[in-house]
Design goal:
It is built from ten helices and ten strands. The chain is of the alpha/beta class and 300 residues long.
Length: 300
């Protein structure tokens, strides 16, 4: 039977020793992007930067590398081989393998696009990589297209589907309690964490489940999930347990959206605003932890 954790059971923030250096807090490698979708990996990289990662690298198709680099000077960019329309190609695999060796955690999927080469590439990375990995967006669609790739991996995996992506992963559309049970079953089957996004996002590892209470309708905007991918990957890179990293990441991502909505309103909020408000959310979360814990009374 799956254990349900209380909504206010939020993991503590990762420790930040006074004598730390950038290597202490891990290297997050974001893999994504395609022509026309340069913003997605950039948002994921910004989410990781603003969630404590020591170093962040974005591995993207070469045609969009200058554009991705221009979003923020605080991460570096690795240009990769691409196909004729600007999506990652099979030729990028060896470079990606080398980049992953230098990383602590990976985030794969934002803005990838769809192709048979990406299905091959994502399948191999998902199965073979020994680093913790967040799998989102078109990386989930690539796994759904090749169901034989949906099997236990060699290291921690956090899958972050929205309802449509989740329906493709399990091969059918469900609602309510049936969808919750299916998410728990998928997590148990893969030995992974599933983050089923939406109002009151569900986080489950198949043994424990938890629902989030932060967030608002202003976050229903393109790129919001890309920021979350970067947040969770940064926490994995700092050594957090995958289930705890997912819960804390979802909680703080929603809190950043709440703080942004309080300041500028939900209607004009963008994913970039969520990323910009992450530092305030971490500060609020830290203040709550130093007082009586990050419970409901300290969330907003």
């Amino acid at each position: 039977m799956v254990q349900w954790l209380p909504d206010d059971d939020v993991p503590p923030l990762p420790a930040r020793p006074a004598d730390a250096h950038k290597g202490t807090f891990g290297t997050t490698l974001v893999v994504g992007g395609s022509v026309g979708m340069a913003g997605a990996p950039a948002l994921a990289a910004m989410g990781a930067l603003r969630s404590g990662a020591g170093l962040v690298r974005a591995a993207v198709p070469a045609p969009i590398a200058p554009t991705v680099a221009a979003f923020d000077p605080c991460y570096t960019v690795i240009p990769l081989g691409s196909d004729a329309v600007g999506r990652l190609s099979q030729s990028s695999y060896e470079v990606l393998q080398a980049a992953a060796l230098a990383a602590t955690a990976l985030a794969i999927g934002p803005g990838l696009g769809r192709s048979w080469e990406l299905e091959w590439l994502v399948g191999r990375l998902f199965a073979e990589q020994t680093k913790a990995m967040v799998v989102d967006a078109d990386a989930l669609n690539a796994l759904a297209a090749e169901p034989q790739n949906l099997r236990p991996a060699r290291a921690a995996r956090v899958l972050t589907p929205h309802p449509g992506e989740f329906a493709r992963l399990i091969g059918r559309k469900l609602e309510g309690d049936e969808r919750i049970a299916a998410a728990e079953n998928l997590a148990a089957q893969l030995g992974a964490v599933v983050v089923l996004k939406g109002r009151h996002t569900l986080v489950t590892d198949g043994r424990r489940s938890w629902r989030n209470t932060t967030g608002n309708s202003g976050m229903a905007t393109g790129g919001s999930g890309d920021v979350l991918t970067g947040v969770v990957a940064a926490l994995l890179g700092q050594g957090m347990d995958p289930f705890d990293a997912a819960r804390l990441g979802v909680f703080v991502h929603g809190l950043a959206g709440d703080l942004a909505a309080e300041a500028i309103g939900p209607i004009g909020m963008t994913a970039a605003d969520i990323a910009r408000w992450l530092p305030r959310a971490w500060l609020r979360c830290s203040a709550g932890a130093n007082a009586s814990g990050p419970g409901p009374e300290n969330r907003r």
